[in-house]
Structures are given as structure tokens and as C-alpha cells.
TrEMBL record:
Native organism: Microcebus murinus
Keyword Chloroplast among UniProt keywords: no
Gene that produces this protein: EFL1
Keywords assigned by UniProt, alphabetized: Acetylation, Elongation factor, GTP-binding, Hydrolase, Nucleotide-binding, Protein biosynthesis, Ribosome biogenesis
GO cellular component, one term: ribonucleoprotein complex
Protein name: Elongation factor-like GTPase 1
Length: 1128
């Protein structure tokens, strides 16, 4: 085992066909990093004794302490088999859900992946998630079933039981693959059908797609995991062994004399061997026979473990000699049986060979990239490949060829930026000196000595100081002064003082085509860059040097400053990187925020964005301990944002600096990074900010004591709160059915708005389609503005129709008649889960583009005013009346919109203006409408004449003492929406996690106790076959989740650990404004009745945090505190 020299790696990088870019994916703790250790030790980078203990890829201190991986990191390995030599770029990824974004960054730059499954735990939630991610990226998986030793040592299975157990795991994972495959085929078929329709219309004949018609004709056998296919190996990473059945097929074909091909087909499966007849038969022909896998493979391993654990020296020796192994004396005598097992097994069935051979045989090289994957990578959003400009389409060939000629365009994808200490960069590190350099140094030292002697003779008094300095510097290994200029090229670049402890960013990237050369200039394309935009601005075949190009949004031009070979904890400098390799790039931090596409041609599209599985949900506000350190904090947060693919940083309206992270562990890591690496200051962190949503529901049918409402006697209202809060002031009309009618402060326009709860399914559909809604809004607005109506491509149109159909399907009944056609906008931010419906007769406008949207003539006339209404709706949905949180699942219906007065005013005003142009530059005080209570008073003192600002062309923005008319409309609409909500039963919605807990039977009770204390709800409980493990699926409010994982771990002594993933929003059933009103309710809850109102607690907590008014008595029934002694 030789440590690979850099030259060897550089040489291997050039042979693209023998490169494998792979990542290791699994559920948390299934042994990815341990497996990586074993593979790394086969290259001599770490010693084989330390493999599994060191967890080399977990280079962060907190990773080592917590024992979980938190980032993906790459290492290049060399593997030789037969005459072939391979370069394996291995990426270890984290399994914890909080870091699933790191998995996304890894799968994007790989061609294949190793899915690791713990033989005891089997398929877990994250296993499913990573398998899906691999599918979405079109990368091919192979399977490693790890921790087989646990079946022997912990579960004490017999080989036969172990076989059934393993078969079970394989069936489960294949069932999963099957579902993924089926949905994909069906989706493609649907797509193909629409495609063929288009083709029929356009008479283009055959298209590129050649998928066969349907599921039944599609061959999917190669997709499944099966030992006989060679894409499954069984390992115990901790004991250093692993095998695929090929290994045993080879051995036994020689031993028993059955053809290897036959054995390959029968070693896995229900076959047994008739030794006498040398025949292989189906197991059910003769009962009680063991399958080949048990008889020929598992039993051998079991008996070895048995011998070692029982310390049966004789038997061990026998096995060792029969296998022809040599065990060192130290291992043979070692008291720990694990060491012996490791020593024997890692020689007998070396894990690295089993895994790497499978990787090289079964996983594709960069040259095998499929056309399907390339097209998918190139088409962002709803684009189709055919709709890309021809220059862009031409790049597909470059992707497929993965060529290294000079003419090949360089295409690199940066999937994340990671921070490393600038001192750890190879160019800043002192490197070992070469022989020549040592000779040079020696020579210089000699010269210096001679000079010194000469000087000493000439100038005796100065000697001590000079000497002192010389002595001071040289022992530190630094170059002595004086020689600095000559030496600069060979010594580390002196790092400037302030950079001394600075973080430097390296891009985690892969070359998809062309050769990345150091010093080469390249375009950096941000995720929103559009080659169409570029081609529009820059004439075809531009000849100007790229530096002089006109600015194009989301594009920059930069130099590839440093290229690195990623070697786990180390980086090695490279001059160039051939196509198909994973690499690190330095010097991009000013150009790339998180991910980017680099290309030598600007016609390249940016790669599709990484798909992140986890939604960042846990927020905290941070501030420096010393206010003067704010700038450092801001800078640190910027760096943190760049260094983490999924963290979000924002500054709220309140001025708080907020970190949004995927979960508690992620939060902790981000805070540590901020404190220790990026900001380097003390910070204080707020309690987690828990997000809520506000909504309304149908009026409840029963009250809090389950009595039908309306039947009980109302108590003479003692408790006035509900009425006190009477939310609707005068001047606003409220109908009995909740229709709010409001006029603008200048009384020129009147709006009637009603709020209705949307059915749950509709809210869900809206949430799922937010991207589509956003693009639809953009489309409509560009249509309205009369921009060139870019053809909506067929696929988007289909999607929009489908979306509309779904809405129509759920919005049925008299109440919702025509609603879908009348949807005017979605909110907040124009894509949220609330809708604005326009039922007003005289003005019709809807979001649906094309023929469905009936844009009438008035539409254009009223467009600006309409925009104000929509803005009002957006504002209202952004923050609700309960605690200023966004709304969800609410439909606002604009029933009437009376502008007749406004029109009159406008015409008379025009006439006025024509008559006299006297009033210029209105100096009259311009009040702005600012609150619900003011409108009444202000209406009275409103001076009649309007002051017009200098007339603008067309429809002038009317301004009166209440400010511009459009502003008044916005405010009125917003207020009307809020009142409309307040007259309906309001509810809070809480963010919910789904939580998967695996626990053994004996700690189950304690898990349930913790869950119920935190308002969790168990959805499902299953026993894992063949084990005493239970899998519990539960939902838990995010608000109650802080410290949950820790508590579970503590209560169960680490035997159960939950995985929390954000899943959905759920209405909290209790009414935050509820007060007892009937006798029974008083009896039941007492007058105060706030002890059980969870919703009120949440609402008040949010209000308090936001500095809003909270109606709360601080001290109630105050009494003098009496101590016992006084009481006597
Ligand atoms: N018994 C047994 N334990 C193993 C084996 N492989 C790994 N482990 C143990 O499982 C634990 C988790 O191993 P890791 O390699 O850190 O797991 P991981 O998949 O990298 O975990 P994350 O990166 O946090 O997702 C460690 O305590 C390992 O010692 C194995 O083959 N057998
Ligand atoms: Mg790990």
C-alpha cells in the first residue's frame, strides 16, 4: 500500500473513462464515514488500524465530538484491479436531516452513489430521501448493506435468519426503487403524449424521445438491487470486511467445480446444492435445505466470529491456515476479539476491494453521462430543451463528449462554497524543501556567516544587536530578511497581517467539459442568468474581449486563480484539471455566493438549482454582546451565508439579524461557526423564533364543553373581553354574513370585502404550486405591460391548466361558483397560499393568462387602481391581525368596488385644471392615512379641493389631504381585509415536524411520555421485523420541539434518537380569543380560563416578541406573601 503521489493522481485524472465520481449516501449513523475510512486506508492515507476509528472525513471538531458528519467532503483515491487503474473521487455526505442540503451539493457533481444501509435498522426515512435525491439527479446507485456483524453479535441471528433478514431489506429497497421508477415512467409517458400532440400539429415527425409506451414494456430489471447483478455488497465497515457474491462464486467454482456463471445466478436466492450430484436445485424441492448463500457464505463468517468470540484458539488457527492468511503476532494475542476479527477478515475479505470493484464495474464514468441528465441539467424552471437558443443546445454535445481538447468549451459547476482557514491553503503552507532548495539555503547561510564574520571584524560595537536579530528569526524557520526577494517564489506567500486568521473560500466543483486551467478567464453564471438575455444584448459572434462586454445581469467574468485536488482534510495545488473530475477552486468568493455555473462560453445556461429536501424553519435573532461589534457580526453572517448551502440570513423590519436554519443541530453548528470562525465575537442568541400562520375557520358547531352552540344559556356577560375587543370601528359597515364595506378616507371609492376559509386541499395545492404561480404572475404582468408576449411554452401552459383544473375540482358548490376564473391574485408575495377573488361586475381581471383570462377594456383603464387593490391584499396577507404573521388558506372576495365618485371627481377635476392652472406645487399639508380610528375624524376636516401635483401624463395620481389616491386604496383594502378576517373565527396555524423515532421496546413508554408532554401525536407505530425495534411516526409542533431530540436521548439513555423534518402547517383548534360565555363554560374553565388556551399563549408570545400590545394582567389577586412561620 503506497501513498499515492500527486503525480500519479494527475496522471489518473486524464483518463476520463476510468474516473468514478461517487458519493456515499445513507441514513444517519449507518456507517458512511466508517466505510470511507476503510476505502481511504486502502490508499495508505490513514493506517488500517485506525480505519473506522479516525473518521478521517469528519474533519471538524464538532463532527468528531458529536459523532455525526455535518458537511460533504471529497477525497481522491486510487484503485488498481487487473491492468486497469481507476481514480475514485469519493464524497462522504452527512446523514442527519438537518444537513440534507449538503447531500444535494454532493449528488449533483457525482455520476453514481453508494447507498449504505444498516443491516439492523434497515431502510430508514433518510435512506428513502437520499434514494429519491439520487433519482432526481439521474445518478446510478449501488447498495452496501453494512454492519452485518451486528446481526451476529447483537441480534444473535443464525445464518438462516440473517439471510431472510437481508432478503427482506433488499425487497424493501427494491420496492422503493420500484415506486420511484413507476412514477417516473408515468410522468414521462404523460410528457411524451403531450409532446407527440405538439408534433402532430407541427408535423415534425419523429422526436428525440424514444421511451417505450408504458410501464409494462419498460425494462427495469437493471434498476433493482440484487447480489447476482453485482450491485450489492455485504459489509462490516467496523471490522473491515465486505464481499459481493462474485468473490465467492470464483472460489467455489474452483472448489466444487460448478461453473462460475451458474454460481453467480444461484448463490443468492432460494437454491441449494446437492453436493453428491454436484447439482443446484430450488430450495422448495427438498425441505430443510439451506440456501447456498447460507451454506457457503454466511456459515463460514458466523463460525469465524464464533471461534474468535469464544477464543477458540485452535479453531481460529485452523481457519486462518485454511484461508492462507498471515496474522501478526500482536493481533493474534490481542485481548480484544474485535482486533482479531478485523485482522483476519480484512485480509480474507478486504472491504475496500469489494466496494471499489463494484464501484468501478457498476457505476458509470463521466463519459457515460446520459442525454436525459444533460438536458435536465440545462433546463431551468419550466423551459424545455427545444426552447433553448441553438447556441445553447449545441453545448449538449460538449457535455456528452466530456472532451479535453483545446476547442472544447470549459463547463464547471460549483455546487457549494466551503470555508477553510487561509493558512491551510497549500500556497500558504510551508512545504517540504526539495534537495536543490536545501542546497541553496545552505549556500546562503554560508555566505551570510562569512559576511557576518567580515562585518564583525570591521564594526565590533554593533555586533550584539545584529546577532540578536539573526538569532531571533532563524530558529522559527522563517527566511531571514535580506533574502526575501529572491526567496519569495519558493517560500509561502507571506500572509498579510489582517488575513492571518482569515477564512478563505474554496468552491466545491466538477468539470463537466474542457480542461480547467489555472489563470484561465471564465464566465461566472449565477442561477438566474439567462443566455437568451445575453444573446439579445450582445450580437452573435461578439468579437470584443469579454472584459468589454456590456453588463449582463447575473454574469461576471473572472480568473480561475487556484485549482485544488480535494484530499479530505488536505488540498493539493493543481495546474489544470481535465474534464470529469471533482475539484476545488480558490479565488471565487467575490463572484459566487453559494452555487454557480462557470463556462468559457456565455451561451451556456446555468445548471438547474440544487433541490433541497429540507425547508429551513428554525430561526433565531442574533446580536453582538458589545454593540460596537455589529459590523463584525454583519460581515460574519455574510460569510456564514456563503459557506453553508442552506442557511438563510435576513434582517427583519424590526432590525433584528435573523438566522434561519434547518434544525437544532444545524443551528448549533451555524452559531459555532459564527462565533469561532466568521465573526469571532461574542454573540447573544434569542430564543428560537417560531413561525406561525394565521387563518380563519368555519364557525364551530359546538362550544368548549361540547354543547351545541346556541342552545345554552348565555351568561350575563361578565367577561367583556370579546366584545371589548370589538374589532371593527365605526365607519366600517359589517353585514351579518361578514361582508365588510369601507370607503377610502376621501370617500371617493368604496370596497366590499369578505373573507372565507379555503378548503384544506386547495391551500395545499397552492403551496405545492408556488413556483408555477410565480411564473404565471410574471407572465401576466409582462402581458399587461404590453411587453413582447414571449410565447408561453406548451409545458407551462399544460401545467397551468392542470393547476386550474385541480382548483376547480376542489372549489365546487354554490359558494365557490366561478371563483377559479375570478382569481385575481395570490398572496403574500404574489405566490402565497391565499387568494383574492374579484367578483365586482364592472371590472374584471384574473390571473389566468391566455384565453382563460378575460381582460376587458376597463382592465387597462383601471389597471393602476387595480394594482393598488392587489397591493393592499398583499399587505394584508403578509401580516395578519392576530400577531402580524402571514396568512394562510384565506380567500378574500372583493364583492364590490365602487369608483363612480372617483370618476366624477376625476372628470370635474380635469375641467378644473383646464380652467385654471393656478395651483402649483401643493404646499398644503399632506396627511397620510394612518389608522383605523382616524378615518372618521379626518373625513370631517377634509378640505374639498384637491391639490394636484404637477399633472403627469395620462391618469394622474390624485392627491388630496390624505395622500395619493392609490395609497389610500392600498390602505383601505388592507384594512378591509383585516376587518373581514376579524369578524370570522380566527385561528393560529402551527408549523409541524414529522418525526421518526426508532426505539427498542423497553424505552417505548418513555418516548411516548416525552412526545405527549410536547403535544406530539403518534401517527403510526410499527415493529421492525425480526428485531425488537419499534418505528414510531409522529407529528410534533415546531414550537415544542426545542430540546426534544436531547430529551428523548437522555430519557432513553441514547437508545432512541428522533429525526425531525418540517412537514406542514396545522390549525391549532383552540380559539385564541376564546372566553367562557355560557354557564357551563364558566363552571368548567373558571372566569380566567387561560390555562388551557395554547393558541393564546403562542399568540401572546409572538406579540410580545414583536413589541405589540398584549392584553395580560401581570399580577392578579395579589396577596401579601405569608411565610409559614408567620402563619402560626
Ligand atoms: N457494529 C458496527 N458498527 C458500525 C459499523 N460501521 C459503522 N459503525 C458504527 O456506527 C456509528 C456511526 O458510524 P459513522 O460512520 O459515523 O456513520 P455515518 O453514516 O457517517 O453517520 P453520519 O455521517 O452522522 O450520517 C459509529 O459508532 C461506528 O463505529 C459496522 O459495520 N458495524
Ligand atoms: Mg458520517
Amino acid at each position: 500500500m503506497v501513498l499515492n503521489s500527486l503525480d500519479k493522481m494527475i496522471q489518473l485524472q486524464k483518463n476520463t473513462a476510468n474516473i468514478r465520481n461517487i458519493c456515499v449516501l445513507a441514513h444517519v449513523d449507518h456507517g458512511k464515514t466508517t466505510l470511507a475510512d476503510c476505502l481511504i486506508s486502502s490508499n495508505g492515507i490513514i493506517s488500517s488500524r485506525l480505519a473506522g476509528k479516525l473518521r478521517y472525513m469528519d474533519s471538524r471538531e464538532d463532527e468528531q465530538i458529536r459523532g455525526i458528519t455535518m458537511k460533504s467532503s471529497a477525497i481522491s483515491l486510487h484503485y488498481a484491479t487487473g491492468n486497469e487503474e481507476y481514480l475514485i473521487n469519493l464524497i462522504d455526505s452527512p446523514g442527519h436531516v438537518d444537513f440534507s442540503s449538503e447531500v444535494s451539493t454532493a449528488v449533483r457533481i457525482c455520476d453514481g452513489c453508494i447507498i449504505v444501509v444498516d443491516a439492523v435498522e434497515g431502510i430508514c426515512p433518510q435512506t428513502q430521501a437520499v434514494l429519491r435525491q439520487a433519482w432526481l439527479e439521474n445518478i446510478r446507485p449501488v447498495l452496501v448493506i453494512n454492519k452485518i456483524d451486528r446481526l451476529i453479535v447483537e441480534l444473535k441471528f443464525t445464518p438462516q435468519e440473517a439471510y431472510s433478514h437481508l432478503k427482506n431489506i433488499l425487497e424493501q429497497i427494491n420496492a422503493l426503487t420500484g415506486t420511484l421508477f413507476t412514477s417516473k415512467v408515468l410522468e414521462e409517458r404523460a410528457e411524451r403524449e403531450t409532446e407527440s400532440q405538439v408534433n402532430l400539429n407541427s408535423e415534425q415527425g419523429e422526436q428525440v424521445y424514444d421511451w417505450s409506451t408504458g410501464l409494462e414494456d419498460t425494462d427495469d430489471s437493471h434498476l433493482y438491487f440484487s447480489p447476482e447483478q453485482g450491485n450489492v455488497v455485504f459489509t462490516s465497515a467496523i471490522d473491515g470486511w465486505g464481499f459481493g457474491i462474485e468473490h465467492f462464486a470464483k472460489i467455489y467454482s474452483q472448489k466444487i467445480g460448478i461453473k462460475k456463471e451458474v454460481l453467480l445466478k444461484t448463490l443468492w436466492g432460494d437454491y441449494y446444492i446437492n453436493m453428491k450430484a454436484k447439482k443446484i436445485m430450488k430450495v422448495d424441492q427438498a425441505k430443510g435445505k439451506k440456501p447456498l448463500f447460507v451454506q457457503l457464505i454466511l456459515e463460514n463468517i458466523w463460525s469465524l466470529y464464533d471461534a474468535v468470540l469464544k477464543r477458540d484458539k485452535e479453531k481460529i488457527d485452523k481457519i486462518v491456515t485454511s484461508l492462507g492468511l498471515k496474522i501478526g503476532a500482536r493481533e493474534a494475542r490481542h485481548s480484544d476479539p474485535k482486533v482479531q476479527i478485523n485482522a483476519i477478515c480484512s485480509q480474507w475479505l478486504p472491504i475496500s476491494h469489494a466496494v471499489l470493484a463494484m464501484v468501478c464495474q457498476k457505476l458509470p464514468s463521466p463519459l457515460d453521462i446520459t442525454a436525459e441528465r444533460v438536458e435536465k441539467l440545462m433546463c431551468t424552471g419550466s423551459q424545455t430543451f427545444d426552447s433553448l437558443p441553438p447556441e445553447t443546445q449545441a453545448l449538449k454535445a460538449a457535455f456528452m463528449k466530456c472532451g479535453s481538447e483545446d476547442t472544447a468549451p470549459v463547463i464547471i459547476f460549483v455546487s457549494k462554497m466551503f470555508a477553510i482557514d487561509a493558512k491551510a491553503l497549500p500556497q500558504n503552507k510551508p512545504r517540504p524543501l526539495t534537495q536543490e532548495e536545501i542546497a541553496q539555503r545552505r549556500e546562503r547561510a554560508r555566505q551570510r556567516h562569512a559576511e557576518k564574520l567580515a562585518a564583525a571584524q570591521a564594526q565590533v560595537p554593533l555586533e550584539p544587536t545584529q546577532d540578536g536579530r539573526a538569532l531571533d528569526t532563524s530558529p522559527k524557520g522563517e527566511e531571514p530578511r535580506g533574502d526575501e526577494q529572491q526567496v519569495e517564489s519558493m517560500t509561502p506567500k507571506p500572509v498579510p497581517q489582517e488575513e492571518n486568521n482569515q477564512e478563505s473560500f474554496v468552491a466545491f466543483a466538477r468539470v463537466f467539459s474542457g480542461v480547467a486551467q489555472r489563470g484561465k478567464k471564465i464566465f461566472v453564471l449565477g442561477p438566474k442568468y439567462s443566455p437568451v438575455e445575453f444573446l439579445k444584448r450582445v450580437p452573435l459572434g461578439f468579437s470584443a474581449p469579454p472584459d468589454d462586454l456590456p453588463p449582463v445581469p447575473h454574469m461576471a467574468y473572472c480568473t480561475l486563480e487556484n485549482l485544488y485536488l480535494l484530499m479530505g482534510r488536505e488540498l493539493e495545488e493543481l495546474e489544470e484539471v481535465p474534464p470529469g473530475n471533482v475539484l476545488g477552486i480558490g479565488g471565487l468568493q467575490d463572484f459566487v455566493l453559494k452555487s454557480a455555473t462557470l463556462c468559457s462560453l456565455p451561451s451556456c445556461p446555468p445548471f438547474i438549482p440544487l433541490n433541497f429536501e429540507a425547508t429551513p424553519i428554525v430561526r433565531v435573532a442574533v446580536e453582538p454582546k458589545h454593540p460596537s461589534e455589529m459590523p463584525q457580526l454583519v460581515k460574519g453572517m455574510k460569510l456564514l451565508n456563503q459557506a453553508d448551502p442552506c442557511v438563510q440570513i435576513l434582517i427583519q423590519e424590526t432590525g433584528e439579524h435573523v438566522l434561519v436554519t434547518a434544525g437544532e443541530v444545524h443551528l448549533q453548528r451555524c452559531l459555532d461557526d459564527l462565533k469561532e470562525r466568521f465573526a469571532k465575537i461574542h454573540i447573544s442568541v434569542s430564543e428560537p423564533i417560531i413561525p406561525f400562520r394565521e387563518t380563519i375557520t368555519k364557525p364551530p358547531k359546538v362550544d368548549m364543553v361540547n354543547e351545541e352552540i346556541g342552545k345554552q344559556q348565555k351568561v350575563a356577560v361578565i367577561h367583556q373581553t370579546k366584545e371589548d375587543q370589538s374589532k371593527v370601528p365605526e365607519g366600517v359597515q359589517v353585514d351579518s354574513d361578514g361582508l365588510i364595506t369601507m370607503t377610502t378616507p376621501n370617500k371617493l371609492a368604496m370596497l366590499s370585502v369578505r373573507a372565507m376559509p379555503l378548503p384544506e386541499e386547495v391551500t395545499q395545492i397552492l403551496e405545492e404550486n408556488s413556483d408555477l404561480i410565480r411564473s404565471m404572475e410574471q407572465l401576466t404582468s409582462s402581458l399587461n405591460e404590453g411587453k413582447d408576449t414571449q410565447m408561453i411554452n406548451q409545458k407551462t401552459q399544460e401545467k397551468i391548466l392542470e393547476f386550474k383544473g385541480k382548483l376547480e375540482h376542489h372549489l365546487t358548490g354554490r359558494k365557490w361558483r366561478n371563483t377559479v376564473d375570478q382569481i385575481w391574485s395570490f398572496g403574500p408575495r404574489k405566490c402565497g397560499p391565499n387568494i383574492l377573488v374579484n367578483k365586482s361586475e364592472d371590472f374584471q381581471n384574473s390571473v389566468w393568462p391566455g384565453p382563460a383570462g378575460k381582460a376587458s377594456k376597463e382592465a387597462s383603464r383601471y389597471r393602476d387602481l387595480g394594482n393598488s387593490i392587489v397591493s393592499g391584499f398583499q399587505l394584508a396577507t403578509l401580516s395578519g391581525p392576530m400577531c402580524e404573521e402571514p396568512l394562510m388558506g384565506v380567500c378574500f372576495v372583493l364583492e364590490k368596488w365602487d369608483l363612480s365618485k372617483f370618476e366624477e371627481q376625476e372628470t370635474s377635476d380635469k375641467q378644473n385644471q383646464e380652467q385654471s392652472d393656478l395651483v402649483k406645487g401643493g404646499q398644503g399639508e399632506v396627511k397620510t392615512y394612518s389608522g383605523r380610528d382616524e378615518n372618521q375624524e379626518q373625513q370631517d376636516d377634509c378640505p374639498e379641493p384637491f391639490e394636484k401635483r404637477t399633472a403627469q401624463k395620462g391618469d394622474s395620481p390624485l392627491t388630496d389631504c390624505y395622500g395619493p389616491f392609490s395609497g389610500q386604496l392600498i390602505a383601505t383594502m388592507k384594512e378591509a381585509c383585516r376587518y373581514a378576517l376579524q369578524v370570522k373565527p380566527q385561528r393560529l396555524m402551527a408549523a409541524m415536524y414529522t418525526c421518526d423515532i426508532m426505539a427498542t421496546g423497553d424505552v417505548l413508554g418513555r418516548v411516548y411520555a416525552v412526545l405527549s408532554k410536547r403535544e406530539g401525536r403518534v401517527l403510526q407505530e410499527e415493529m421492525k421485523e425480526g428485531t425488537d425495534m419499534f418505528i414510531i411516526k409522529a407529528v410534533l409542533p415546531v414550537a415544542e420541539s426545542f430540546g426534544f431530540a436531547d430529551e428523548i436521548r437522555k430519557r432513553t439513555s441514547g437508545l432512541a434518537s428522533p429525526q425531525l423534518v418540517f412537514s406542514h402547517w396545522e390549525i391549532i383548534p383552540s380559539d385564541p380569543f376564546w372566553v367562557p360565555t355560557t354557564e357551563e363554560e364558566y363552571l368548567h374553565f373558571g372566569e380566567k380560563a387561560d390555562c388551557e388556551n395554547q393558541a393564546r399563549k403562542y399568540m401572546n408570545a409572538v406579540r410580545k416578541r414583536k413589541g405589540l400590545y398584549v392584553e395580560e394582567k401581570i399580577v392578579e389577586h395579589a396577596e401579601k406573601q405569608r411565610t409559614l412561620s408567620k402563619n402560626k
